[in-house]
Amino acid sequence: xxxxxxxxxxxxxxxxxxxxGFRLVAGRDVQxxxxxxxxxxxxxxxxxxxxxxxxxxxxxEALTVFEAQVRIVGILEDLRxxxxxxxxxxxxxxxxxxxxxxxxxxxxxAFRCAGAPPSELQVREMLRQAAPGLALHxxxxxxxSLAEVLGPQRMARAFMAAFATLALLLAAGGVFxxxxxxxxxxxxxxGVRASFGATPGRILAEVLKEAxxxxxxxxxxxxxxxxxxxHLGRAALGQWPVPPMVLGLVALGALGGAVxxxxxxxxxxxxxVNPIEALRAx
Length: 282
What we know:
With 282 residues, the protein is an alpha/beta fold. The chain folds into 2 domains: 3-108, no CATH class; 152-281, no CATH class. It contains 11 helices and 6 strands. The protein has helices at residues 3-6, 16-20, 46-53, 96-99, 120-130, 142-185, 187-195, 200-228, 230-237, 244-271, 275-281, and strands spanning 9-12, 24-27, 41-45, 62-65, 68-76, 92-95. Strands 1, 2, 3, 4, 5 and 6 form a 6-stranded mixed beta sheet that branches. A hairpin with a 2-residue loop joins strand 4 (62-65) and strand 5 (68-76). Helix 7 packs across helix 11. The N and C termini lie far apart (86 Å). 19% of the residues are buried.
């Protein structure tokens, strides 16, 4: 056990996983039977298991914690207690009766309730009845804590979404103008094709095909540039909730749909060019 690992030791009461909403990957939660005088146990996160053992399958393994052999009885999903933008530290939890000699200054109590959360006054009264000798130093709702931690990421994502929507609209407007000018310049060509038997559907498909090529080239270039700036996005927004490849495909699909929608009107006009009028204009 290194000093760095010891910094991430937490004490726990039975019901920790349920009260905090942790995801138990394997094993069990802290139990009332985990008391002083029996074999010490601990819960570890997957990151702690990787750091301490080099693997995640460590259920049943023993680790020396402050000169005592402690058995691993549960493995938790990684906990990002410092926010989504920072890597999850390796953390482990020991039952309070088996580790009360380590710290005895502060005690954090977490509880989950059905319905509306209690007020601070109600919590103080419950604490006074359960442990008159303890003083409530700080009371806070978990949702408020999450809002404070996730606030910068949520604001950054909102701005990014707004700018991305604006960029998509500008791209669609640019494609619309480009395709309109292209159709106008090729009006005579479409008229000649129509006079030689080209159907409106074929001309429409050809113009939309050109727009699709523009969408694919621009989309792939944008995705590659986005992957190149991936580390900046992770620093501002935290870890991506979905794989980057999925994000790339979604972005390419959104851009392609916007481009084809913008190009449909010019393509429709091109497919309904009157051959006589087009040739007469020339």
